[in-house]
Fold each of these.
Amino acid sequence: MVLSGSTLNPNGHALTVSGSFLHSGGALTIAAGTLEVGGDYRLQSWDGSAYGVSGGLLRMQDPAGRVVVGGDFATDSASSHSRSLTAGTLELRGSFTQLANYASQDPASRANFLASGSHRVLLTGDAERDLFFTNPTVSGFAALEIDTAAPVHHLPSLNCATLVANGNPLTDGLVIGSRDFSLAEDLAVDGSMVLAGSTLSLNSKCR
């Protein structure tokens, strides 16, 4: 499926895409609806040989809204999402990539995945994955919940305000340097931990 312009709104219903979803332009307003993508969700453009910058916007502002991605999620949107990702759940069964190739024209695009409020990214599935931010000091997760025992690699560092690991250890160690974050539960780090900047709040324990 391709969204290249206008606005798509599930209107409280469930929209299922068995393949991948290319969001090259226009707005996707989830509201209280659900979008389930069997493959990748790419908030990018495609010129026939390579992915590039997208003019698209993803709006998740309702607690009941849900986007489920069976593959990878990647954003290279030219638009700031500082007020667009404030509620709802983005469930990922693959990797996450934030790029900002339009930043030289508009620095605000570095915030193309700046989640806030009650917005949550939920990691599920059995695949080993990377969570990569090109601009970790600007974009980031509001809440990150890990509901998988598969290895999760945080690149270049953990980038969330709140972390819920559900007893799953951070198998790639832990580096904190981009964003203040607090624990919502006990957390086990399987490897080394580096605090290189920002603030770590131990509301419970880290071991």
Amino acid sequence: MKTISIINLKGGVAKTISAANIAHILATVHNKRVLLVDNDKQGNISKMFGVHSYDNMSITDILMERFNDIHEIITPSQFIRLDIIPANMTLLEANTIEKEKHRQTRLRTAFKGIAGVYDYCVIDNAPDLNMSTINALVASDDVIIPIKIDKFAFDGLAELAEQINNICSNKELNSRLALKGCFITSYQSIERVSLILAGVPGGAEKALSRVIDRARSTVRTTALKGITNVYAITQKDVRAETNINMHTRKENSGIVGEVWFSGAAIPLYRFNVTPKTPTPRTSEHVRAGVLKGRQTLLKNAFVALMTSGHYGVFERVSGKYMEARGGKKNKHTQAIGNGIYDQFYGPSTAQMAANSVVLSEVEDAAMDTINKRLEHEISRLLNGYD
């Protein structure tokens, strides 16, 4: 079985669609038996093929060694000769395995059970060098890197090449691993648009402005969706605590679209808190989680109804400011009844939008919108539609 890893440390370069197309062509055009592995916690490959689930086993179970037979995890796709190993956000858990024995070789070991079943294995990797991607590199024969031609095209390639060399130089890991090269997935330049629309007055500026406006909306929508995929909070609660502003401006290098998320840290109560009703102030049974699927016991915390009519999670601080989670003074200390208490807060929307998983989803979605919409706008203007 020939195993190929598709990886780039940049988001928005069409890694997932490239992996899916390579696997599909091998299976349907070349009649090869193909295993497509989703090794990205976003689970986009799994969603694309309709096998995304939190109820069934996934690649997390391989990396955590929670399976008896790898065939339990492999899921048939709707295409003949093409099967999937799905992924979901539980892959975050697998990337915490740092001190356990043989942690880098678990995927390779699991593949031994299917060596004669498939002709090819294609692995779609996250834009990160974590334990799951290292497992993929250790299990692979070849690495190919999709790139988008822009001024950031080669960002991260040196670090990725260094990691590949480190794995190659370790005989216990994978001395046969080969970097086969890069392939271009996207090329759009302002010069190209200007040349095509040279006969349309202001054509390039009109096309690019409309594309950027559409991409801004995509960024806003995808960021909100991505936040609620990663964090235990609803879009309604995010919007209630956030100001979202969008702006387009001209620069010498072209037209720039901006999306700004502003707002203070969001009260912890809006995240995953149990219970949601007021509790005794001596209770030690309040559990809370900011990320999906995770909760932590908060000692001496309690849920209370504030005079403003909103609920919150509090901890008594005996009349003094206490160090808030994150090392900064919490300015939201307030009196409740006869005591002074400190309210627990989670991250702000801006902090959540900067999460690497969310950013990667946003970059992919924005680039997809730009690529599709630009051709549409060029066609409209060339056909006389202003």
Amino acid sequence: MRWSQWMSERARATEGREGAARVQERAEMEPETRETEEPEGGQPEAAESVDWVALADALQELYAAETPARCIQSALAAAAEHLGASFLLVLLLDQEERSLTAAHLAEIDHMRVSKVIAALDQDPAELVLPVDGERARILRSDGPTVTGDFRALFAGAISAEQCEEAQRVLHIRTVISLPLAARGRRLGIASLWYRRPSPGLKPARKLVEHLALALWTHQAEDRARQYGNIDPETWVFNRRYLFEAGRRELYRARKHERPLSLAVLDLVDIGRFEEEYGPTLAAKVLRSVAVRLAGAASPIDVVARYEDGRFVVLLPETDRAGAEEQVTRLIEELGEDPDLLPVKDGPEMRIAAAVASFPEDGASLEALIRSAKGSLPQPEDKGESQEQAAGGVTA
């Protein structure tokens, strides 16, 4: 995901939450009987009375749900109570948008889910359904598809005979399937199963519309949290995440009396390199160094960009001797890497590093970083040895 796209999604994610506040206002304007609609594969629906205010209250629960699974569970409850639906099946697209899954059902504790699993003799949460055939058509459609059964939804995964038997056991007479779409993005398919003929289409569309927006909001917030911890230029953690992780590790080290160290690494010549070769190649150098640092770090280490050409490596469970040994090895590996710089026969890129350990060098992350930065070579000392750099390591 491009950084600009993420920023846009992060700003728009809050709009989904605002949707809940508008539900009540819209509901009061809805008529008690609905206009006639012509769905695909079905006849115009019959007029039906709906308590729109009660439905609006139920729709607000979708936006208040803490997880997508809880959101879908709230939608299932609303479909049963206010739409008279026997079941709501939600199939969500995977990241590659090549298959649909109902894995979230494993997190939903609802009697209706148990009944469907028993009737199908198959847990839908375990199914991975390719986007093809009728599923692809529903996903790309702009309106509801009304049929008398749900065989097409499970084609290739559950036999037609088993679907027919399940439909008989569950007394399903009408299936309304709609695409889950919000903000121009297709999220999956929502399928409402009814025990009566000609159920209302407008309440179904209203429920699915808000379910899609609530799910989109969850996905956007998840992406915001994921990419909000990443520095867009170097692809390692950013300064904000460094301080979050640092505070957690300091608390753990203090509580359990465990060692904790960090290293500050400084690309001494990055400013001169940028002046000579431009910001694009300088950014490639930063990313190249960051990726190699992250690749060499252990699973519990945290590699983060601190500022400009400076990185911090947080080293839990590591004392000063271990930190100095690890950083020396990292510096040597970077210095011997022939592909570190994007230009051949260019200027050397010196990397200086210094370590600090808790508690001897500081009791907070800020104090530890300040201590390590104080041990880095000063401008007039750059290029000197580790001993001459007061604890720094220079390659």
